[in-house]
C-alpha cells in the first residue's frame, strides 16, 4: 500500500463520516418536533459533519498537492465560530417572535420569567 | 453535457418568458432573473464544457476551458445584478407608491 | 495609438464621478458640467478633424491589439455622432439648469446626464461587440435613473415598464453575442466582419443577425417602439429632450454598424426586413403623432417617425441612401433635442401638456414661439433647414432603388409630422392670450439659450449642407466599404 | 450681375430691421420704410423688361449643395420676368395700400411686414430659380409666409383654421411635388429645368416620368387652388385684405400657373399633361364660378372667382401645351394662341382682381362689413369706389372696353381651337368655358349691383360709410387705369412681354424659326367668340334676375357633401382613426408589449432559422455527464416548473434562489471558480433584495389571469424557448473558427497573471470591467436617489 | 433583567476580522487565484453588513464615517485614473504593467498596476453594495 | 474506488440538501425555514469540498469560506429581521 | 502578556537582521529562540509566562472537542431512534463569568455541546436561558459541563 492509497483511505473515511453525519443531521431537521430541537441537530451535527469533510479535503490537498490550504483551515475555524452563533440567534429569534414550543416540552423558564415581569409591570 | 445544459437553459428561457408575460410585477422580475441565469448557462454550454481545467495557470493542466465566456459571464452577472437590484427597488417603490404590483393596473393610457 | 479617442468617454465619466463629491454645491456642478461638455465638444471636433485628414483612428485599449483587446474605432460616422451627442448634452444641461428642481440637482441629475453621455459616446466609438453591450448598459442604467428620478407616480409607472422591457432586450443582446462568439470565436467587430465574410454569412449567422436586429430595433424604436412614448412623456423636460435626441439614435447607430460592417451579405433578407419595419414604423409613428393632443405624446411619436425614415435610408444600403440616413440622423438629433426643449418650456409655462388647454403664448414668449416654429419646420424637412437635405437624399436613394411606395410613405408621414407639430404651434402660441404679463414670467426662459443655439445649428446645417456632406460622405464611404474599417483596425499589427 | 441675388435676398435681409423700425420709429408708419423695397425691386427688374426683348435669357449660378446637384441658379427669361414684375408691381401697390389700411396703433405691423417681405423674397426666388429644389425651397417658404399671414389675427378662430388648412393643403402638395422633382432627377440626373428641357425625349420614356408629372401636379393644383384642393382659398380670406389681394389672388396662387408654364417644355405635348391640366382647369373654372354666385361675403365671392379664373388660366395652358404634341404640329401655332391667352389673362386677372380686392378692403374698412346682404346703394356715398369696382368687375366679366374682354375672347378662341383641331367631341371644352363665363358674369353683376345700386341701407352698418381716404384709393386707381389702358393698347406688352413669354413656354414649337407675332386687337369681326360673349350677357342678365330661385337650388345641397365638410371630417376622422389604431398597438400594458417583442423574436428569428436551414445538431462532441449533474439539472427544471404553478411569493423567491445557487454549482462543475464565487454572492444579495422588496410587503391585490391568456402566454413562452434553444444547439456544433481565447492562455507572460479570467477582466478587457463598475455605481446611486429623493419630496409637501 | 446581544456582537467582532482578512486576500490574490476586486468588495460588504446587523446603523456610522456614494465614485475614479496614467507614458489608455521585485518577507513579488485597477473595482463594489443595503434598510424603518 | 466514494458522498450530500429543502418548503414557522437554509449552507460547503477533491483542483477553496460567510450572514439577517421586523438599524436591545 | 509577545517578535526580527535573510523560516526560527529566551527569563516579568496560556488553551480545546463528539453521538442517537423520546425545555442557569469575551466563549462551547443551545443572556446578572433537548436527562450533565468550561475559560482569560 503506497502513501497515496493511505491518504485516499483516510480522506475517504473522513469524507464518508462527515457525509453521514450531515445526512443524519438533515434527518434531525425533519424529524425533531420544533424549531428549538431542530436547532440542536443543525448546530452540532452539521458542524461536525462539515468539519470532517473539510479536514478530509485539507489532508487530501496537503498530501497530494503539498498545499497547506490556509483557506480550508480558515473555513474550519469559521464554521466552528458561526454555527453556535447561528443556532443561538435562530432560536432566540424564534422565541422572541413567539414560536411555540413543541407539546412534549416540559419546561419554559424564560417564558415564565417574562410573564412574571409582565405581571410586575401591570401591577 | 452541452446539449443537456442548452436544453435546461431553454427550459429556463421558456419559464422565464412565461413569467415575464405575467402581469404580476414580482413574477416578471423573477422571470428576468431566470432569463439571465439561462443566458449564462447557454453562454457556457455553447462554447464547450469541461474541455480542460479551470483557467488558472497554477493548475498546470494540459488544456484549459475557454476563459472568454467566463469573463463575459462575469461582466454580465454583475450588470444583471445591478439592473435587477435597481429594478427591484423601483418595483418596490412603485408598489408602495401606487399600491399595486399588477402591470395591468400600471397601464398609462386609461387614466390619463 | 491615439488616446484622444478615449477622451469623449472619460471626460464625462470622470466629471460625473467628481460631482458626487460636490453634491450640495449646485453651482459648482453646473460649472463642472459645462466645462466638461465644452471640453468633450472640443475633443470631438479635433477627432473629426483628424479623421478627416488622416482617416480612421484606432485605439487599442490596454495596448492589446485587435482582436484580442478592446479597440475603440473612430471613423467619421462615430466621430460625427459623438460630437452631436456632446453638443446635445450640453444644450439639454443648459436647459436643465433652469428647468430642473433643486432636489434633482442634489440627487446627481448632472452626474447621470454625464454618465448617459459616456455610454452614448462609448457606444459610438467602440469596435467591440461585447463592449458595445456594456456601453449600452451604462447608457441605459443612467436613463433608468434619470427617468425615475423624482419618483412621481407617472415616472415610477413608466420607468418600470421601460426598465423591464430594456432589461429583457439587453439579455437578448447577450444571448445574441453568445451565439456570435460561439460561431466566430471573436468579439471584435472588424474581426467579425472579416470572419463572417470568409464564410459568407450562412443561414445560422443570418438568424443570429436577426436576433441582433430585434434587440437594436427595440432600442432604436424601430417597430418595437412601444416603450418609447410612455417613458418619454414621463421624464422631466430636459431629460426627455436628452432621451429623444440620444437614446434611439444609439440603437440606430448599432443597426447601421452591424448591418453595414458585419451582416451585409444577405441584404435580401436582413435589409428587406429592416425596410418593412421602417415602413411600419413611419406609419405607426405618424398615426400616433396626429392622433394625440398632448405635447409630449406628439413629440414622442415624432421621434418614432424619424427612426423609420432614417432606417429607410439605412435599409437601402447604397452610398447615397446611407449618406442621407446619416445626414438625417444628425439633423434629427439636433432637431429632436430642440423641439423637446421648446416643448418642455411650453409645458412648464402652462403647467400641463394638454394642447386643448393652451392658448396665445406668442404675445409674451415671442422668441420661444419663433424658435419653435423654425424647429417644427425643420422637423418636417421644410427647406432650407437641415431636415430638408437629408430627406431629399434619402428619397432620392429610395426612388433610385425603386422603393417608390416607401418614398411615398416617407413623404406622407413627414407631412403628418408637420401637421402634428404645427398643431402644437397653433394651439399653444396662437389664440386668445390666457396668461397675463406677470404670470410665470420666468418659466421657460432657460430654453431660449439652448434653443437659439440649436436653431442656429439647424439653419447652418441646411444652408451649409455641402460642408456637412463632405464629412458625412466620408462616413458613408466606410459604411459601404467595410474593408476600410477592417484595414484601419488591423493595420496596427504590421 | 450678382445684384440679382441681392435682389432676391433683400426682402429676407430686411426682415430683422422691420421690428427694429417698428419699435424705435413708431411715429412713422412702418409701411413707408418697407415700401422702399418693392419700389426698388420694381425699378431694378423693370430695367430687365426693357432689355429682355432682345437679349438671351440671363443665367447665373452659385453652388449650394453641389454634391447633390443643387445650385442656386437664377434663370431670368421673359416668363420669370413677367412674374417678377407682377410680384414687385402688385407688391408695391399693396404695400402702399396697406399703409392706409393697417392701423399703426392697433396692428402688429412689424410682423405684418416681416411676413410680407418673407413672402416677397420667397416668391421672387420661386420664379427666378432654375434648380427645381431651390425653387421648391422658395415655394415652401411662400406657403409658410401665407400661413403666417392668414393667421395674422391669430386670436380669431377662423384665422387659425384658415391658416392651418391652407398650410396643410399646400404643403401636402408641396411635399408630393418634391417627390415628383426627385423622380425627375432620377430619370435625368439633374435638377436644372433648362437641362431637363434639353434632355427632352430621353427622359420621357423613363417609367418614372409620368408618375413624376402627377406628383408635381399635386403641388401645382394645391398651390393654385384647383379643384378639389381649392377649399383652402376661401378660408385664407381671413388674412388682412392687402394680403388677400397680393398673395391669394395676384401672386402666390399663380405660382402653380408659373410652374405649369415653366414645365410645359418638359411635359407639354403629352396627353396626360394636356388632359389633366385642361380638365382640372375647366372643372375648377366651372365650380369656382358656380360657387361664387352663392357667396354672401364679398371676399369669399372674390376667392371663388379667383379659383375659377385660375382654373381658366390653367385650362388655357393645358390647351396650349398641345402645340408641343407632334400629332398636332401643324396647328401648333393655333394652340400657342391659347397659351398667349393664358398669359394675357393672367396679367389681366392680377390687375383687376388686385383692384377688386382693394376695393372690397375699402368697403370693409369704411362700412365695417363685407356681407352683401347688409350692403346696398353705396353709389351715393362712395362714387369713386363704385367706379373703380365697376371697372374691375366688368373686366372680370369680360366686357369691353376693359382688358378682360380681350383675354376672355382669346380664351374662347383657344377652347374652340381645341375642339376644332382635336375632334368634334372636344366641343365640351368651349361649352364648359361658356357656361362658366355666364356664371362669372352673374357674380360680377352681384358685386356691383348688390353693393352699390339699390336701396341704401345705412341702418345695420357699424359705422357711417363715406368715401375712403385718397391714399387708400391710389393703388386701386392705378390698377383700374391699367385695365383700361390694356384694353386700348394691348400691344404695348404684346411683343415685349407676351410674345417672348409664350415662346419661353413653348420653345419647341418655335424651335425651327417659325415666324409668329402677337398682335392683339379688340375687334375681330362677328365671329363665334363675339357671339359667345353676347350670349353670356343675355343669359347672365336673365340668371341674375332669377338669382333667388337659383340660390334655392344651392341651398338644397346638404352641407355634408361639400368638400369643405369632407376636409373637416377627414381631419377629425384621421385623428380618431389613427388614435384608435395606435391605441390598439400601444395598449399600455407591459405584458402585451413584451409579448410583441417575443412574438417578433419567434417570427423573425425563429422563422429565419427554419427558412434558411440554420438548424444543425450533432451530439458527438458533447462532454460526458454525471448522475449528480443530471440531478442538479433536474432540480433546476423542477424549481422552474414549480415557479410556474405556485402562487406563493416566498416559494417563488426560494425557487429562483435555488436555481441561482445550482447555477453557481454548475459553474464549479464547468471549471469556472471565479464565476462560482461571484454567482454565489450575487445570488445571495439578490435573494435578500427580493425578500426585502417584495416578500415582506403586504399583499394588496389578488388577480386571476384568464385561462385563454395563460395558454397564449405559454405558447409564446414555448416559442421563445424553442427558438433560443434550437439556435443554441446549432451554434454549439458550429464553431467555424479558432477562438481568440487561445491568445489569453499566455496570460502569465503577457499580463503577469495566472488567473486567465482575472487577466481578461483587469487587463485584456479591463475596459469592460471599468464600465461594468460604472453600471454598478449608477445602479447603486440610482437606488439611493430613488429612495432618498422621495423623502425630501415628502418634506416639501 | 436585560437581555443583550453580547454573544452575537462579540462573535461578530471576531468574525469580521476573519472576513476582512479573507476579502483583502481575495482582492490581492485575484490575479493568480480565483477572486479579485469584485468578490473582494462583496465580501467586505458582507462584513460591514454583519456589523450593521449586530450593532445599529448609527453606531457603525460613527465608527466608520464613510459616505458610500463617494466611496463608490472614488472607486470608479481610481479605476479610470489607472487607465489615464498611461497617458504619461504614451501608451494606450488602460495599459497595465507589471514587474517583479524582491520584498522582505515575501520574496519575489509581483507588482501589477492591474491590482490598483482592481482596488478601484473593490471600492466601487463596497460603496455600491453598502449604498443599496443602507438605503433600503433605512427606508423600511 | 476513491472516486466512487466521492461520488457516493456527493450523492448522500445531495440527498441531505433535498431533505433540508423539504423543511424549507414545509416550514411551518419562518424560523424552521431559516434553520433549514442554514443547514443547506453547511451541506453545500461539504459538497464543494468533495467536488474540489473530485476535480482535483484547489481552485474552489475560496468558495467554501465564501459560502460559510454568506450562509451565516443570511441566517443572522433573517433571524434579526424576524425578531424585530428590520434587518438592521435598530438600536440594539433597548 | 502583551509585552512578552512583543518582545518575542522583536527577538525574531533581530534574528532575521542578523541572518540577513528575509523569509518565514528564519523568522520562525527567531521566534522559537525568543520563546525559549523568554521562558528561561520568565521570573523577571511581573506577570506569568504567556506560554502557559497556550497550554490552557489547548486544554480548553481538547475538552471542547470531547464534549462536541459526545454531544454529537447523543443527538444522533436521538434522531435515529425510531420513536422520539425526549422532554425538551428551557431552563435558567447562572454563570460566574463577567466579560463579554468570556461569556461568548462559554456560550459557544455550551451551544456546541450535548443538547443545549443558549437562548438569552444577561451578562450583568450572569443569567443564561438555555434550551435543552432533554431537560431531565441533561440538566445535571449540562451544569457539570458548564462548570468545567467556566473553570477552563477563567484559566485562559485571567
Ligand atoms: Na467583472
Ligand atoms: Na476575479
UniProtKB/TrEMBL annotation, chain A:
Pfam families: PhaG_MnhG_YufB. The lineage of its organism: Bacteria, Bacillati, Bacillota, Bacilli, Bacillales. It is found in: Membrane. It is a multi-pass membrane protein. Keywords: Antiport, Membrane, Transmembrane, Transmembrane helix, Transport. The chain crosses the membrane at residues 6-33, 45-63, 69-91. Belongs to the CPA3 antiporters (TC 2.A.63) subunit G family. One of its GO terms (cellular component) is membrane. One of its GO terms (molecular function) is sodium:proton antiporter activity. It comes from the Bacteria. This is Na+/H+ antiporter subunit G.
Automatic annotation (TrEMBL), chain C:
One of its GO terms (biological process) is ATP synthesis coupled electron transport. Keywords: Antiport, Cell membrane, Membrane, Transmembrane, Transmembrane helix, Transport. It is found in: Cell membrane; Membrane. The chain crosses the membrane at residues 6-22, 31-52, 72-97, 109-126, 132-150, 162-183, 203-228, 240-263, 269-292, 299-319, 325-350, 362-382, 402-426, 447-469. GO terms for cellular component: plasma membrane. GO terms for molecular function: antiporter activity; NADH dehydrogenase (ubiquinone) activity. Its main location: membrane. InterPro entries: CPA3_Na-H_Antiporter_D, NADH_UbQ_OxRdtase, ND/Mrp_TM. The keyword Cell membrane applies. It is a multi-pass membrane protein. Residues 128-416 form the NADH:quinone oxidoreductase/Mrp antiporter transmembrane domain. NCBIfam families: PRK07691.1, PRK12663.1. Belongs to the CPA3 antiporters (TC 2.A.63) subunit D family. This is Na+/H+ antiporter subunit D. It comes from Paenibacillus albiflavus. The lineage of its organism: Bacteria, Bacillati, Bacillota, Bacilli, Bacillales.
TrEMBL record, chain E:
Residues 8-131 form the Na+/H+ antiporter MnhB subunit-related protein domain. It is found in: Cell membrane. The chain crosses the membrane at residues 12-30, 36-55, 71-91, 111-133. It is a multi-pass membrane protein. One of its GO terms (cellular component) is plasma membrane. Keywords: Cell membrane, Membrane, Transmembrane, Transmembrane helix. This is Na(+)/H(+) antiporter subunit B. The lineage of its organism: Bacteria, Bacillati, Bacillota, Bacilli, Bacillales.
From TrEMBL, chain F:
One of its GO terms (molecular function) is sodium:proton antiporter activity. The chain crosses the membrane at residues 6-25, 34-54, 60-81. Its main location: membrane. Keywords: Antiport, Cell membrane, Ion transport, Membrane, Transmembrane, Transmembrane helix, Transport. It is a multi-pass membrane protein. InterPro entries: MrpF/PhaF-like (IPR007208). GO terms for cellular component: plasma membrane. It is found in: Cell membrane. Belongs to the CPA3 antiporters (TC 2.A.63) subunit F family. This is Na(+)/H(+) antiporter subunit F1. It comes from Paenibacillus albiflavus.
Amino acid at each position: 500500500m503506497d502513501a497515496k492509497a493511505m491518504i485516499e483511505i483516510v480522506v475517504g473515511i473522513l469524507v464518508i463520516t462527515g457525509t453521514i453525519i450531515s445526512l443524519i443531521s438533515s434527518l434531525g431537521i425533519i424529524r425533531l418536533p420544533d424549531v428549538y430541537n431542530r436547532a440542536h441537530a443543525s448546530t452540532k451535527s452539521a458542524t461536525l459533519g462539515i468539519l470532517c469533510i473539510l479536514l478530509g479535503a485539507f489532508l487530501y490537498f496537503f498530501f497530494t498537492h503539498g498545499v497547506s490550504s490556509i483557506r480550508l483551515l480558515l473555513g474550519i475555524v469559521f464554521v466552528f465560530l458561526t454555527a453556535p452563533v447561528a443556532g443561538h440567534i435562530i432560536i432566540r429569534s424564534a422565541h422572541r417572535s413567539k414560536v411555540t414550543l413543541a407539546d412534549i416540552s416540559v419546561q419554559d423558564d424564560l417564558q415564565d420569567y417574562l410573564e412574571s415581569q409582565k405581571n410586575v409591570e401591570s401591577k | 453535457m452541452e446539449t443537456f445544459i442548452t436544453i435546461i437553459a431553454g427550459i429556463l428561457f421558456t419559464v422565464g418568458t412565461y413569467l415575464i408575460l405575467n402581469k404580476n410585477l414580482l413574477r416578471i422580475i423573477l422571470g428576468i432573473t431566470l432569463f439571465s441565469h439561462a443566458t449564462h448557462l447557454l453562454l457556457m454550454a455553447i462554447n464547450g464544457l469541461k474541455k480542460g481545467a479551470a483557467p488558472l495557470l497554477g493548475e498546470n493542466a494540459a488544456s484549459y476551458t475557454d476563459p472568454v465566456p467566463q469573463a463575459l459571464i462575469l461582466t454580465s452577472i454583475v450588470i444583471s445584478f445591478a439592473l435587477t437590484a435597481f429594478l427591484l427597488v423601483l418595483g418596490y417603490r412603485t408598489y408602495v407608491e401606487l399600491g399595486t404590483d399588477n402591470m395591468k393596473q400600471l397601464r398609462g393610457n386609461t387614466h390619463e | 495609438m491615439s488616446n484622444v479617442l478615449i477622451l469623449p468617454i472619460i471626460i464625462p465619466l470622470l466629471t460625473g464621478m467628481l460631482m458626487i463629491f460636490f453634491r450640495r454645491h449646485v453651482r459648482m456642478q453646473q460649472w463642472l458640467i459645462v466645462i466638461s461638455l465644452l471640453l468633450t465638444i472640443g475633443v470631438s471636433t479635433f477627432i473629426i478633424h483628424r479623421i478627416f485628414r488622416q482617416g480612421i483612428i484606432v485605439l487599442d485599449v490596454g495596448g492589446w491589439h485587435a482582436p484580442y483587446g478592446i479597440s475603440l474605432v473612430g471613423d467619421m460616422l462615430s466621430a460625427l455622432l459623438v460630437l452631436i451627442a456632446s453638443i446635445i448634452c450640453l444644450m439639454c444641461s443648459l436647459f436643465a439648469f433652469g428647468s430642473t428642481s433643486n432636489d434633482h440637482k442634489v440627487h446627481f441629475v448632472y452626474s447621470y446626464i454625464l454618465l448617459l453621455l459616456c455610454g452614448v459616446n462609448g457606444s459610438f466609438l467602440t469596435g467591440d461587440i461585447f463592449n458595445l453591450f456594456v456601453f449600452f448598459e451604462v447608457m441605459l442604467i443612467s436613463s433608468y435613473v434619470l427617468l425615475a428620478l423624482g419618483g412621481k407616480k407617472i415616472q415610477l409607472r413608466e420607468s418600470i415598464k421601460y426598465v423591464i422591457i430594456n432589461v429583457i432586450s439587453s439579455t437578448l443582446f447577450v444571448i445574441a453575442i453568445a451565439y456570435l462568439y460561439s460561431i466566430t470565436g471573436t468579439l471584435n467587430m472588424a474581426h467579425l466582419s472579416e470572419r463572417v465574410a470568409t464564410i459568407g454569412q450562412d443561414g445560422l449567422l443570418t438568424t443570429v443577425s436577426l436576433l441582433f436586429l430585434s434587440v437594436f430595433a427595440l432600442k432604436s424604436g424601430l417597430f418595437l417602439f412601444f416603450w418609447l412614448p410612455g417613458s418619454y412623456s414621463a421624464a422631466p423636460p430636459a431629460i426627455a429632450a436628452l432621451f429623444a435626441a440620444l437614446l434611439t439614435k444609439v440603437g440606430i447607430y448599432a443597426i447601421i454598424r452591424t448591418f453595414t460592417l458585419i451582416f451585409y451579405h444577405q441584404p435580401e433578407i436582413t435589409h428587406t426586413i429592416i425596410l418593412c419595419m421602417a415602413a411600419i414604423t413611419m406609419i405607426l409613428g405618424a398615426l400616433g403623432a396626429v392622433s394625440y393632443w398632448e405635447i409630449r405624446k406628439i413629440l414622442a411619436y415624432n421621434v418614432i417617425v424619424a427612426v423609420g425614415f432614417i432606417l429607410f435610408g439605412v435599409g437601402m444600403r447604397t452610398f447615397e441612401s446611407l449618406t442621407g440616413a446619416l445626414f438625417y440622423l444628425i439633423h434629427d438629433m439636433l432637431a429632436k433635442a430642440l423641439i423637446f426643449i421648446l416643448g418642455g418650456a411650453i409645458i412648464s409655462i402652462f403647467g400641463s401638456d394638454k394642447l386643448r388647454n393652451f392658448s396665445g403664448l406668442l404675445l409674451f414668449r415671442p422668441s420661444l414661439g419663433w424658435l419653435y416654429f423654425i424647429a417644427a419646420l425643420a422637423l418636417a424637412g421644410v427647406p432650407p433647414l437641415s431636415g430638408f437635405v437629408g430627406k431629399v437624399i434619402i428619397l432620392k436613394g429610395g426612388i433610385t432603388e425603386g422603393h417608390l411606395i416607401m418614398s411615398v410613405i416617407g413623404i406622407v408621414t413627414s407631412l403628418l409630422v408637420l401637421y402634428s407639430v404645427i398643431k402644437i404651434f397653433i394651439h399653444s402660441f396662437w389664440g386668445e392670450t390666457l396668461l397675463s404679463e406677470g404670470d410665470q414670467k420666468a418659466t421657460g426662459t432657460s430654453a431660449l439659450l439652448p434653443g437659439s443655439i440649436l436653431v442656429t445649428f439647424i439653419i447652418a446645417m441646411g444652408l451649409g449642407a455641402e460642408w456637412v456632406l463632405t464629412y458625412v460622405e466620408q462616413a458613408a464611404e466606410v459604411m459601404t466599404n467595410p474593408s476600410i474599417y477592417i484595414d484601419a483596425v488591423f493595420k496596427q499589427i504590421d | 450681375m450678382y445684384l440679382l441675388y441681392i435682389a432676391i435676398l433683400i426682402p429676407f435681409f430686411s426682415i430683422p430691421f422691420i421690428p427694429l423700425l417698428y419699435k424705435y420709429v413708431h411715429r412713422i408708419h412702418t409701411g413707408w420704410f418697407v415700401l422702399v423695397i418693392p419700389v426698388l425691386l420694381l425699378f431694378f427688374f423693370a430695367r430687365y423688361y426693357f432689355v429682355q426683348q432682345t437679349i438671351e435669357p440671363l443665367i447665373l449660378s452659385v453652388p449650394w449643395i453641389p454634391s447633390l446637384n443643387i445650385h442656386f441658379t437664377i434663370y431670368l427669361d421673359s416668363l420669370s420676368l413677367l412674374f417678377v414684375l407682377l410680384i414687385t408691381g402688385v407688391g408695391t401697390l399693396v404695400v402702399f395700400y396697406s399703409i392706409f389700411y393697417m392701423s399703426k396703433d392697433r396692428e402688429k405691423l412689424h410682423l405684418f411686414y416681416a411676413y410680407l417681405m418673407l413672402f416677397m423674397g420667397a416668391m421672387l426666388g420661386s420664379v427666378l430659380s432654375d434648380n427645381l429644389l431651390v425653387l421648391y425651397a422658395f415655394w415652401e417658404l411662400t406657403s409658410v409666409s401665407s400661413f403666417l399671414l392668414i393667421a395674422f389675427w391669430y386670436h380669431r378662430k377662423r384665422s387659425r383654421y384658415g391658416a392651418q388648412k391652407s398650410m396643410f393643403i399646400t404643403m401636402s402638395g408641396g411635399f408630393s411635388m418634391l417627390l415628383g422633382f426627385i423622380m425627375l432627377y432620377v430619370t435625368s440626373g439633374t435638377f436644372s429645368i433648362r437641362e431637363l428641357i434639353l434632355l427632352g425625349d430621353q427622359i420621357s420614356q423613363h417609367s418614372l416620368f409620368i408618375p413624376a408629372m402627377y406628383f408635381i401636379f399635386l403641388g401645382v393644383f394645391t398651390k393654385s387652388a384647383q379643384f378639389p384642393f381649392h377649399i383652402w382659398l376661401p378660408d385664407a380670406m381671413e388674412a388682412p385684405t392687402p394680403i388677400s389681394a397680393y398673395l391669394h389672388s395676384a401672386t402666390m396662387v399663380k405660382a402653380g400657373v408659373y410652374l405649369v408654364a415653366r414645365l410645359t417644355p418638359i411635359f407639354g405635348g403629352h396627353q396626360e399633361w394636356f388632359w389633366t391640366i385642361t380638365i382640372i382647369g375647366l372643372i375648377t373654372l366651372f365650380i369656382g364660378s358656380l360657387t361664387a354666385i352663392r357667396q354672401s361675403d364679398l371676399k369669399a365671392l372674390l376667392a371663388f372667382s379667383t379659383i375659377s379664373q385660375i382654373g381658366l388660366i390653367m385650362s388655357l395652358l393645358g390647351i396650349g401645351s398641345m402645340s408641343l404634341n407632334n400629332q398636332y404640329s401643324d396647328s401648333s401655332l393655333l394652340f400657342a394662341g391659347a397659351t398667349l391667352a393664358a398669359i394675357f389673362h393672367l396679367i389681366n386677372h392680377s390687375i383687376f382682381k388686385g383692384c377688386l380686392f382693394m376695393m372690397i378692403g375699402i368697403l370693409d374698412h369704411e362700412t365695417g362689413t363685407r356681407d352683401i346682404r347688409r350692403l346696398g346703394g353705396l353709389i351715393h356715398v362712395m362714387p369713386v369706389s363704385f367706379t373703380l369696382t365697376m371697372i374691375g368687375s366688368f373686366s372680370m366679366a369680360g366686357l369691353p372696353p376693359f382688358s378682360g374682354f380681350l383675354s376672355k375672347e382669346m380664351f374662347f378662341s383657344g377652347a374652340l381651337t381645341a375642339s376644332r383641331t382635336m375632334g368634334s367631341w372636344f366641343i365640351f371644352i368651349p361649352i364648359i368655358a361658356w357656361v362658366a363665363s355666364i356664371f362669372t358674369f352673374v357674380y360680377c353683376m352681384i358685386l356691383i349691383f348688390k353693393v352699390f345700386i339699390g336701396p341704401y341701407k345705412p341702418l345695420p352698418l357699424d359705422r357711417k360709410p363715406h368715401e375712403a381716404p385718397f391714399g387708400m384709393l391710389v393703388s386701386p386707381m392705378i390698377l383700374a387705369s391699367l385695365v383700361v389702358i390694356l384694353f386700348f393698347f394691348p400691344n404695348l406688352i404684346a411683343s415685349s412681354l407676351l410674345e417672348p413669354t409664350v415662346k419661353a413656354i413653348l420653345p419647341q414649337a418655335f424651335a425651327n424659326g417659325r415666324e409668329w407675332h402677337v398682335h392683339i386687337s379688340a375687334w375681330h369681326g362677328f365671329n363665334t367668340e363675339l357671339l359667345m360673349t353676347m350670349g353670356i350677357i343675355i343669359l347672365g342678365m336673365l340668371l341674375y334676375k332669377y338669382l333667388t330661385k337659383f340660390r334655392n337650388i344651392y341651398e338644397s345641397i346638404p352641407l355634408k357633401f361639400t368638400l369643405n365638410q369632407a376636409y373637416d371630417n377627414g381631419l377629425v376622422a384621421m385623428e380618431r382613426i389613427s388614435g384608435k389604431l395606435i391605441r390598439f398597438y400601444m395598449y399600455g400594458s407591459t405584458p402585451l408589449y413584451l409579448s410583441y417583442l417575443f412574438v417578433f423574436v419567434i417570427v423573425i428569428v425563429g422563422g429565419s432559422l427554419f427558412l434558411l436551414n440554420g438548424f444543425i445538431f450533432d451530439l458527438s462532441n458533447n462532454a460526458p455527464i454525471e448522475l449528480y449533474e443530471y440531478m442538479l439539472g433536474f432540480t433546476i427544471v423542477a424549481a422552474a416548473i414549480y415557479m410556474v404553478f405556485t402562487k406563493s411569493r416566498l416559494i417563488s423567491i426560494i425557487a429562483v434562489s435555488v436555481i441561482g445557487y445550482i447555477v453557481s454549482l454548475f459553474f464549479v462543475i464547468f471549471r469556472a471558480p471565479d464565476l462560482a464565487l461571484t454567482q454565489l454572492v450575487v445570488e445571495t444579495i439578490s435573494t435578500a433584495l427580493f425578500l426585502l422588496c417584495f416578500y415582506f410587503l403586504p399583499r394588496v391585490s389578488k388577480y386571476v389571469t384568464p385561462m385563454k391568456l395563460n395558454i397564449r402566454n405559454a405558447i409564446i413562452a414555448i416559442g421563445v424557448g424553442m427558438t433560443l434553444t434550437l439556435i443554441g444547439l446549432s451554434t454549439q456544433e458550429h464553431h467555424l473558427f479558432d477562438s481568440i481565447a487561445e491568445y489569453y492562455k499566455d496570460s502569465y507572460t503577457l499580463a503577469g497573471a495566472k488567473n486567465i479570467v482575472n487577466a481578461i477582466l483587469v487587463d485584456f478587457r479591463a475596459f469592460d470591467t471599468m464600465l461594468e463598475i460604472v453600471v454598478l455605481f449608477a445602479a447603486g446611486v440610482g437606488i439611493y436617489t430613488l429612495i432618498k429623493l422621495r423623502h425630501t419630496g415628502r418634506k416639501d409637501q | 433583567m436585560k437581555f443583550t446581544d453580547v454573544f452575537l456582537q462579540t462573535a461578530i467582532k471576531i468574525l469580521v476580522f476573519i472576513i476582512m482578512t479573507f476579502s483583502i486576500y481575495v482582492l490581492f490574490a485575484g490575479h493568480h487565484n480565483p477572486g479579485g476586486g469584485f468578490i473582494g468588495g462583496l465580501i467586505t460588504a458582507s462584513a460591514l453588513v454583519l456589523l450593521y446587523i449586530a450593532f445599529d446603523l448609527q453606531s457603525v456610522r460613527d465608527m466608520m464615517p464613510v459616505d458610500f456614494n463617494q466611496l463608490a465614485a472614488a472607486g470608479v475614479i481610481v479605476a479610470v485614473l489607472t487607465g489615464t496614467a498611461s497617458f504619461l507614458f504614451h501608451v494606450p489608455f488602460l495599459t497595465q504593467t507589471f514587474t517583479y521585485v524582491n520584498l522582505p518577507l515575501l520574496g519575489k513579488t509581483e507588482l501589477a498596476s492591474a491590482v490598483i485597477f482592481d482596488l478601484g473595482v473593490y471600492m466601487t463594489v463596497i460603496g455600491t453594495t453598502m449604498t443599496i443595503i443602507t438605503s433600503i434598510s433605512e427606508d423600511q424603518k | 474506488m476513491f472516486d466512487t466514494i466521492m461520488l457516493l458522498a456527493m450523492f448522500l450530500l445531495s440527498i441531505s440538501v433535498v431533505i433540508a429543502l423539504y423543511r424549507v418548503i414545509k416550514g411551518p414557522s419562518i424560523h424552521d425555514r431559516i434553520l433549514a437554509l442554514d443547514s443547506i449552507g453547511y451541506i453545500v460547503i461539504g459538497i464543494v469540498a468533495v467536488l474540489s477533491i473530485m476535480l482535483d483542483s484547489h481552485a474552489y477553496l475560496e468558495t467554501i469560506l465564501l459560502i460559510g460567510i454568506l450562509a451565516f450572514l443570511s441566517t443572522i439577517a433573517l433571524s434579526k429581521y424576524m425578531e424585530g421586523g428590520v434587518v438592521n438599524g435598530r438600536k440594539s436591545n433597548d | 502578556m502583551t509585552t512578552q509577545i512583543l518582545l518575542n517578535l522583536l527577538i525574531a526580527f533581530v534574528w532575521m537582521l542578523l541572518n540577513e535573510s528575509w523569509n518565514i523560516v528564519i523568522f520562525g526560527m527567531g521566534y522559537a529562540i525568543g520563546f525559549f529566551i523568554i521562558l528561561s527569563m520568565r521570573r523577571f516579568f511581573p506577570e506569568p509566562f504567556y506560554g502557559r496560556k497556550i497550554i490552557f488553551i489547548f486544554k480548553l480545546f481538547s475538552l471542547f472537542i470531547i464534549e462536541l463528539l459526545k454531544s454529537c453521538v447523543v443527538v444522533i442517537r436521538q434522531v435515529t431512534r425510531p420513536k422520539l423520546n425526549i422532554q425538551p425545555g428551557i431552563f435558567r442557569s447562572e454563570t460566574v463569568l463577567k466579560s463579554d469575551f468570556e461569556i461568548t466563549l462559554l456560550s459557544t462551547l455550551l451551544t456546541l455541546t450535548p443538547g443545549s443551545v443558549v437562548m438569552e443572556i444577561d451578562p450583568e446578572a450572569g443569567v443564561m436561558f438555555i434550551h435543552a433537548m432533554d431537560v431531565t436527562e441533561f440538566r445535571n450533565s449540562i451544569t457539570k459541563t458548564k462548570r468545567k468550561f467556566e473553570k477552563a475559560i477563567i484559566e485562559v482569560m485571567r
